[in-house]
């Protein structure tokens, strides 16, 4: 059988696939739409990250495809219902990058609370910005609000509690009495209470109709003055214009944004010169370790799916 891989994957996991099947590994195939459509016609399995849109014309070409391996967890780039209708299994790498994202959340909140790591240039110039950098904050004793309490939200909560934070959570898909909250020492609240009482808010929800525009100007206004916002989930969930306005007004104490409405992010003045704003190019889930876990998990799942289809 033939496997087409359109974005980067750990080479050892690719070799595992090659030992069993014909493999086209072309990590830049996502940027060549015409060739992608041609290669899709003879694919028994296709493996993608978040940039390849498995919908529309591409999905129409996957006429002999048995499964879609997703090197990650978000499925907003895949027409899941369309795949199901065509008997194509969708295989996400659930849980494989949770630790990487959670560690990003912790490091981002520490950086925003205590932005001392920008001092190197000044220090090498003979400056001594001790007074300016002496009023940072600690994470210990602060309250983390987790919106979306799946694997990543739970891992973020565990790390935060280990640092002495209290954690509250809201998940529209879980009832307040869901055992996972008590099991992880987290108090569940409604969204409005979380917005009004958290010192740091981190988002871990999929992009669906109910989460599009979840955090806008009204929600930011309800947050504590000086609170932090971290979004590692998806663009379109947070209104970045509203975030920029809240940062400039001083109501929002800081923000870390790893995901955007359009990726790659184009040059923009809307976010330029915002105080205490950390922007990163959708890398919160990408580390050497997580790429290995994700790649091998998907390789195993794809091989199993193809074996079952024989």
Task: Report what the structure shows.
By secondary structure, the protein is an alpha/beta fold. It folds into two domains: 2-96 and 288-309, 3-Layer(aba) Sandwich (Rossmann fold); 98-279, Rossmann fold (3-Layer(aba) Sandwich). It has twelve helices and twelve strands. Helix 5 (98-113) crosses helix 7. The protein is globular, with a radius of gyration of 21 Å. The model has no long low-confidence stretch (mean pLDDT 96).
The name of the CATH topology of the largest domain is Rossmann fold
Secondary-structure-based class equals: alpha/beta
Query: Mean of residue pLDDT?
Result: 96
Query: What is the strand tally?
Result: 12
Tell me the distance between the termini.
10 Å
Q: Return the CATH class of the largest domain.
A: Alpha Beta
Question: How many helix segments?
Answer: 12
Low-confidence stretches: none
The run of helices and strands is: EHEHEHEHEHHEHEHEHEHEHEEH
Radius of gyration: 21 Å
* CATH-scheme architecture of the largest domain: 3-Layer(aba) Sandwich
| Main sheet record | 7 strands, parallel
Helix fraction?
25-40%
Spatially, the strands of the biggest sheet line up as 8-7-6-9-10-11-12
**Could you say how many structural domains there are in total?**
2
Strand-residue proportion: 15-25%
